[in-house]
Amino acid sequence: MIAKIKQQMSEITSAKITETEYAAKGYHLDVEVPADQVVTAAEILDAEKFYLEAVTGVDWMGAKAAELAAKKAAAAKAALDAAKKAAAEAEGEEKPETVAAPVAESVEEVEEDLEEEMEVVYDYNHAEELCRVVVRCRVPRLSPELPTISEVFPGANWHERETHDFFGIKFIGHPDLSPLLLPEDADFHPLLKDFSA
Amino acid sequence: MSDFALSQTKETFVLNLGPQHPATHGVLRVKLEMDGEYIVHAEPILGYIHRMHEKMGENRTWAQFMPNTARLDYLGALSYNHGYALAVERAASIEVPERAEYIRVITVELNRIASHLLWFGAYVLDLGGMTPIFYAFDDREQILNLLESVTGARLTFCYFRFGGVYNDIDDSFIAGSREFIKRLRKQMPDYHNLVTKNIIMIKRLKDIGPISPEMVRKYGATGPVMRGSGINYDVRKNEPYSVYPEFDFDIPVYDECDSMARYMVRMDEIEQSMRIIEQALDKLPEGPVMTEKVPKNLKPPKGDYYSAVEAARGVFGCRVVSDGTNTAYRLKLRSPTFSNLSLFGEACQGMLLADALAFMGSLDLVIPEIDR
Fold first, then answer.
1. Domain B62-336 - what CATH class?
2. Residue A54 and residue B317: Cβ atoms within 8 Å?
3. ipTM
């Protein structure tokens, strides 16, 4: 089953598929898809008689900035080390090395892509054969939008509404995104990392 | 659906069921669009007891969240202790001593029986049968006394720890459990004679509230709702955790898909839980009930982890995302009744109001667990 799903998922363009160690993680397959492909992923799993256990979100606010800061620190350290090494080597033999250059390049890459993100996580499970599949999708934090899968799995309706309540993620095509668990006039999203009561 | 409901030419009216209503067992409101006695459209309205447990998980340490888990499903709280403990133990790679695993199973199964007994009594009460709840509560009381003696609580247990349990069980608990099983074995035939074979009961439940296996799958319903629709799925068998593989027990499955099938699944589960407890008491190994290596300030490594258990009402899943600190970065609580109730709107279209209440009862709703 795992191999079968893996093969079918690999046909989705730019899907990142990882087979995970079940004992350590609690699921077998981790599939990251672009926002416009979540419905396709749901249809693949629906055809194989999976059921949807939950939909939820994760707010990764600050994660990229932290990553960038870590990379910058690492780059600075590498540059310093290289300088030290060069200074030490200058006294001895000459060994032209450029350790710092590639690291600096990767920092620039991250800097360009510093758009904050949120993640939507779909947990699927199979009733006959033990096979847990996690489908993830990253959406920009400032305009979190992706299509609804409630037409494939009607059970996703409430889960998506709840995710909208908590994170403000918009599920396009969802029949009713009014607050489910929050008060009916709620205009806040409590699970955002910058939310405070 | 009846012809009457299908015709839909006449005007309809809106009927509010709840948020305070004896049949909803908690603060659930259902907005019903009625055509006379028939339901045209039903919309459950949630959130009356929403407490944002998931946010609470993000602002206290891993261990400090344990008491919260008992406040989701207060009738089967130990399963929720268990689910959360398993998820964090998986994240932090904590081993649990064998004796603790056995104690966990014994207490969780006792709790499951208590939960089913309360449901049994309350369900029959919903349907107009006053007597059984008194018997059921009397039996349940024995379990609460037993659990109180080891956990210190009667309802909102906080008994499990990462790496074991808080307290060892003693001889009086073991003797008490054996006695209780003897007692309940004698009671079960009475329950069946008094309730299961009662003609009024059968008329109220048989063929009422059909849920097809396909509908169960599409809505992600689990637990007795799933097994009452002929799907043989139980986390304890399909995705074994703790020491469940050591025991010989069956998973009751009924194909009828109606309220009676769900009723029978739970009644049979009581018997199976008794079998598990008996075996666990027989095999109970000696040893510690806590690992010593668990750090006080627990910091599971970065990553996300998932763990599921079979609670009294279905699959309770716990997804934890750790950023390597002593609090969760994200804690998702997947509660079974949330999904089980989500099919209510579709399933009760065209149903008589009285039947819808009998159907709702068969879903075994615990509202704080839906609202979290």
1. mainly alpha
2. yes
3. 0.87
